[in-house]
Amino acid sequence: MKTLDEVSDGLADTLVDDFMGHPDPGIMADAAHDWERRSPLLRASHVIDPDYVATFEENALAKARDAFRVTGLPSVADDSGIEVQALNGMPGVLSARWAGRHGDDEANNELLLGQLADVPADRRGAAFVSACALVSPEGETAVVRGEWRGTIVAEPRGAAGFGYDPLFVPDDDTAGGRTSAELAPEEKDALSHRGKALAQLLPLLRALG
User: Fold this and answer.
1) Does a cis peptide bond (omega within 30 degrees of 0) precede residue 25?
2) 79 is known as an active-site residue
3) Is the Cβ–Cβ distance between 143 and 66 less than 8 Å?
4) How many CB atoms lie within 10 A of CB 11?
């Protein structure tokens, strides 16, 4: 089996940029960090289209197809957000604009906390979700999904990350009760929904080499 470095060398002339297809700069930066840690070939650099407001998987695949149509290169796209148990899986694909304006993290967090104000701790379960889609040069497609489960706390904690990170305490023992915004970048990478999704794409990227 080829190593990721060998795959990177083999694709260096073709797969120059990955197209994350997301207008949220926080997601772009977070994904870029995660991808570059796995391969120097994968760089978040372009926005293709805003969310299509369907499912995470449908959004990710639509974005990857848009990127492939524009470039003719292997294209990868991400769509992600948070699903809250007490809200029947919402905000979901509307996570970035939950309060009405796209990317207003403070307003989104305030609205979510308000909606959960009377919800007991045992019903505040949530999961960050990332769907990643790959379109190959032959037009073949693959979509994977990663989930990071945890709980929504009563007030924001931590200054790192973006979006709902200050409200989300992962179930993972290694998080030690800290919110995602209180984790170091390398800790978050090792646990996150996006990292789990991207790890599933690596065999497919190796196959392209």
Assistant:
1) no
2) yes
3) no
4) 19
What pLDDT, in 10s, does the model give residues 127-179? 999 999 999 888 789 999 999 999 999 999 999 999 999 999 999 999 999 99
Q: Of these residues, 24, 79, 105, 165, which one is catalytic?
A: 79
Which letter does DSSP use for residue 143 in this model? E
Tokens of 112: 């979510």
- Which is it for the CA torsion 58, 34, 138, 203, positive or negative? negative
Q: Is the separation of the CB atoms in 172 and 191 below 8 Å? A: yes
Averaged pLDDT, 72-93: 94
Cα dihedral 195→13→134→17 (10° resolution): 60
Taking residues 184-200, what's their average pLDDT? 93
Residue in this structure with the two tokens 């929904």, named with its chain if needed? 193
